[in-house]
Amino acid sequence: MAGNTIGQLFRVTTFGESHGLALGCIIDGCPPGLALTEADMQHDLDRRRPGTSKYTTQRREPDEVKILSGVFEGQTTGTSIGLLIENTDQRSKDYSNIKDKFRPGHADYTYHQKYGVRDYRGGGRSSARETAMRVAAGAVAKKYLKQVHGIEVRAYLSQMGDVTIDKVDWDQIEQNAFFCPDADKVEAFDELIRKLKKEGDSIGAKLTVVASNVPVGLGEPVFDRLDADIAHSLMSINAVKGVEIGDGFDVVEQRGSEHRDAMTPEGFKTNHAGGILGGISSGQDVVAHIALKPTSSITVPGETINRQGESTEVITKGRHDPCVGIRAVPIAEAMLAITLMDHLLRHRGQNADVVTETPKI
Amino acid sequence: MAGNTIGQLFRVTTFGESHGLALGCIIDGCPPGLALTEADMQHDLDRRRPGTSKYTTQRREPDEVKILSGVFEGQTTGTSIGLLIENTDQRSKDYSNIKDKFRPGHADYTYHQKYGVRDYRGGGRSSARETAMRVAAGAVAKKYLKQVHGIEVRAYLSQMGDVTIDKVDWDQIEQNAFFCPDADKVEAFDELIRKLKKEGDSIGAKLTVVASNVPVGLGEPVFDRLDADIAHSLMSINAVKGVEIGDGFDVVEQRGSEHRDAMTPEGFKTNHAGGILGGISSGQDVVAHIALKPTSSITVPGETINRQGESTEVITKGRHDPCVGIRAVPIAEAMLAITLMDHLLRHRGQNADVVTETPKI
Amino acid sequence: MAGNTIGQLFRVTTFGESHGLALGCIIDGCPPGLALTEADMQHDLDRRRPGTSKYTTQRREPDEVKILSGVFEGQTTGTSIGLLIENTDQRSKDYSNIKDKFRPGHADYTYHQKYGVRDYRGGGRSSARETAMRVAAGAVAKKYLKQVHGIEVRAYLSQMGDVTIDKVDWDQIEQNAFFCPDADKVEAFDELIRKLKKEGDSIGAKLTVVASNVPVGLGEPVFDRLDADIAHSLMSINAVKGVEIGDGFDVVEQRGSEHRDAMTPEGFKTNHAGGILGGISSGQDVVAHIALKPTSSITVPGETINRQGESTEVITKGRHDPCVGIRAVPIAEAMLAITLMDHLLRHRGQNADVVTETPKI
Amino acid sequence: MAGNTIGQLFRVTTFGESHGLALGCIIDGCPPGLALTEADMQHDLDRRRPGTSKYTTQRREPDEVKILSGVFEGQTTGTSIGLLIENTDQRSKDYSNIKDKFRPGHADYTYHQKYGVRDYRGGGRSSARETAMRVAAGAVAKKYLKQVHGIEVRAYLSQMGDVTIDKVDWDQIEQNAFFCPDADKVEAFDELIRKLKKEGDSIGAKLTVVASNVPVGLGEPVFDRLDADIAHSLMSINAVKGVEIGDGFDVVEQRGSEHRDAMTPEGFKTNHAGGILGGISSGQDVVAHIALKPTSSITVPGETINRQGESTEVITKGRHDPCVGIRAVPIAEAMLAITLMDHLLRHRGQNADVVTETPKI
């Protein structure tokens, strides 16, 4: 059934296959009066784009987004915004290799069984290529959040394989090809990637996404809690296998006296909660972590079956990242921004009358 | 805005505060013809119920559920099912302690700021008491899944504090008060709980939820992927701070050649993916893990502020679990069952025509 | 699939059969801070209630509504509001007459074919008894609209059979049992009803619903236009077969020069549009008309079939209105109020930033 | 808030302004395996297209639709279908006339007040130009309904001004420019249109939409009744001011003994209900009527105000239909088809298990 939409009031619907004619997106519910041009989206699209560094795939898509509606004289009009990216680099390739085989670790088998038919070219709809549109829509949300509310959404690579970062220097993130906030670890990441390329293998990654300056009050308990909706939106990114809010799985070993964040007139003393209490933002930074699996598109041969159900082997050649986690940084930002944007509008709808006399901390 | 509903075709909407008159739920979209009585729900409600063992809170709610509609002559009719549990144990208590103070680690502050008004009695709507209705609704989903499709949804405690289990014996789970599948660890859990009670402190926990016999094909990419919707539904449970599918955060250190599950004519050789590929169930067991934070309802004094924004201290007396994770076992089962049920119906709607000639493995 | 919910931000979900244990409703998304007691709903419930006059059915239900959640110390808290009405007058009746026969003009046949099972007692879920909950939920919407925005939603009977009203005197509506705004027509209505009762037959009716003081701007083009959503909500009332906005079907014979409402600095000169332009409220009165069919619950024998598909005859005895349109007046008000309330919150969510310098007329 | 989507399982989302770069649409939830090409949509687009006859506007848009995704090797894949129509006839026109004035009877004023900004070129998003995408999406639904279930959805002009048809000959509908099923009335329609053109005025119309071969069981009471959803989808068409199901407003004067459709082993004897009982399709033809207002785009000067709220006058020059009802025939078909398609999938989701032994009539 229809599953290509995310959000309730800020609603993003996408289409497009890896090797089809184009990718597209409709943003419905963007408030009117926001200054918006293609350039606002292009920056993040470029950050996500393959082929931008030697660490990511060499597929070259300009990923040029076009605004087709919803903007008039440079401003959003409150009507639905149509976005389009044409696929210019659809190499006419020989797909006989994967047409009748199901690549292990890929969606080939499940798409085939679910739909009875599948666009096998480059993974079709299951390809991470569709995330370009998430990034474009996310850029709109990011701009609104920043401009109207001062909310900033940023992400970084916090671990790849067994290499972890030791510090977070926000100024470093855009200074290297890994979105790594710890300059001292860039070389280790570099080395790991080079090793994997040589071996034709891949590796997983952990990202951290942070939204700062989030107002208190976002989130709609009990099911559309902010954390639940963030978990949904981040887990919907290709290759993500885990989502944490705040301390995440570390809480398993924590005591209550240690985990709860003390409150003072000057604010919270710690942020174990990741900025969300009872499913509602607390005014602290919203912090989430995600785990991305190593891509299965590798040249190490894999055991699998064909459409007849017979045993066979497959190698995935082509232009593939050894670590898909790197390029997921702008995607994670986009998804968190879309979810925050949606909750901001939802909160406004129901709670416009609310006046509290309690000081916000 | 409206956030008390989960699901699209199998839709569960709940109401009720901890110390209000009653909890209630409407299940909309349950297929007709399912044999259903209160007893089908009571079993899981009893498993979740506080006061059933010395390890959980001593609040005594019979939690007796009543079916008010949607069932005729013992069968569901396809119309909306109304469920009700009266709150019989609303001790008239002195709430002056928490009326004007925000307990750290609780939703007191965020509810107050969001809504301007809050039912402070026992946490009101933010109390885990509302999960009783999730369990009741989940029991309906579990029954349908089991009876019509042979799908079984079960959960267990896999870690509390630093005590982890070493093996999973499904027969052990209901034999102890911890839903622990490893008989050899029951004593260690018991000891930990006793220690915490003495100290007035609490501890986090990790649960594992497994659905077996799931058909291939459930999940609606790209946003309503099965894993994304599971992340949403599990993260919506009170106190959950992390969700993993399959290997979860372990994938960060895995290689692609190691993570991808090889396919053979006899089936998958491993299940690193947790039964979901490309957001669609693969036919393997669906496996998820969740991390539950230590409850903040402890007798260790906590630093906080009052409604005037002034510094103060708070102690949470009352009947509270040292580890809320234990009672969350039936809740986690319920939420996974609700999500699978929803996706089963969604899949049926769009894909009723699909015929594949590929053998399912 | 799940169809027992209406609204997006102000969301109403109902359950309950005619002769089940109870009717219930969850209102999700009501803004916090609204003073609310059962009495606020009871007035409209009493207006809808059967047995209140000699013109309506003699079934005697006190229809006493209970608030189970979402209200604390007399104020809504922003959490979901649970409402319950127990069915106290479930006469243990002999249903053998309609158990195996499909009453013509009723939902018996379609429910049976759709679900394979049906609660035949008094029509089960298809009975207009469920509208009691619409009225209760509508009363909450009406109170908020009135109190916070000064919006008033009222309805009246404008035609029954061939008897039409000639004038609208709002003060008359509650002065007679027909919700008739034209005192001179009360006797004609009375005579018609008495005649029908004698003949065991029924008659159709036309109602007019008006919302005054509606702000300009409500409605979300292009599909969730205000008129489209009003059409949905009014057509969802039992027995409604037609919905008009403003001049409705009269527009077929109108000229453009005649239909368009001229605008002046003092406001619109006419209201052919019924207060909606381009799917958005214009600030004028929102005016709708609905046609209600004559009930099929009559004692004139009807030709039909039984479950075996064989020809037979059926008479519907019992306590039935000769004109269901009369009691539909508070129901129509409720549905319009629910839809306006929903759109008010939706509009607020997206357009909170909008500032126009154009004077509202 | 987001209102540019219709449907739940078969979900259509659109974008595009009258004089923007392009119109677009995403169809989400179309079952896989349906043979689909642009030609399947082009036929209905051509029927809707302005400039096809001397009776409709002379704006010349080729309205050529392109499928951008969701179709592979000529078959739908179950993924979202992206459609695009470029606006090729965006005359660079002088809009100073309507830029600062609100045309009476148009959405100019309400869009301006709601959003604070509007694309005034040709009405922007409020223009009926957006219905091209409804027609394209509707064509997909029509094809599926016809091919898989034998359901046919057709419409015709039943009245324009005071000229009504006397008979329905389906074969005549495509033989004239009015979609008129009564050959004897074509001349009278022609005469009326010529007269209006001369006068620079416009006229309303009434259309009838019929779906035949609809299976029993579609519709989800109590709110998502089939009739309620049809009312929503038909009322969402520009200029529609009234919707009737079956006998519609005629029921006001009918008796119950006359209205209810007798059932026999051979089927229903009449169809006053319009094929829907209790909100569920009965297996008879689904019949709806709609009233379309006379367009306000006329050359007769109209009294209005400007953005400063001052009195002024306006004339709408340009290429406009004297009767927008004519071109609405394929639009009405499209909307009914989309709603039926959605309900077909919804019904399948919940009721796949249902087996009744009662013969369908």
Automatic annotation (TrEMBL), chains A, B, C, D:
The reaction(s) this protein catalyses: 5-O-(1-carboxyvinyl)-3-phosphoshikimate = chorismate + phosphate
Binding site for NADP(+): R48, K54
Amino-acid biosynthesis recorded as keyword: yes
Region annotation Disordered: where it falls in the sequence: 41-60
Listed SUPFAM superfamilies: Chorismate synthase, AroC
HAMAP family, per the entry: Chorismate_synth
Annotated EC: 4.2.3.5
Pfam families xref list: Chorismate_synt
InterPro entries noted in UniProt: Chorismate_synth, Chorismate_synth_AroC_sf, Chorismate_synthase_CS
Subunit structure: Homotetramer.
Function: This reaction introduces a second double bond into the aromatic ring system.
GO molecular function: chorismate synthase activity; FMN binding
PANTHER family xref list: CHORISMATE SYNTHASE (PTHR21085:SF0)
Cofactor (UniProt): FMNH2
One annotated GO biological process: chorismate biosynthetic process
UniProt cofactor note: Reduced FMN (FMNH(2)).
Pathway as given in its UniProt record: Metabolic intermediate biosynthesis; chorismate biosynthesis; chorismate from D-erythrose 4-phosphate and phosphoenolpyruvate: step 7/7
Protein name: Chorismate synthase
Source taxon at top rank: Bacteria
Chain residues that bind FMN: R125, S126, S127, N238, A239, G278, K293, P294, T295, S296, S297, R319
Keywords linked to the UniProt accession: Amino-acid biosynthesis, Aromatic amino acid biosynthesis, FAD, Flavoprotein, FMN, Lyase, NADP
CDD domains referenced in this protein's UniProt entry, alphabetically: Chorismate_synthase
Organism: Photobacterium proteolyticum
UniProt family annotation: Belongs to the chorismate synthase family.
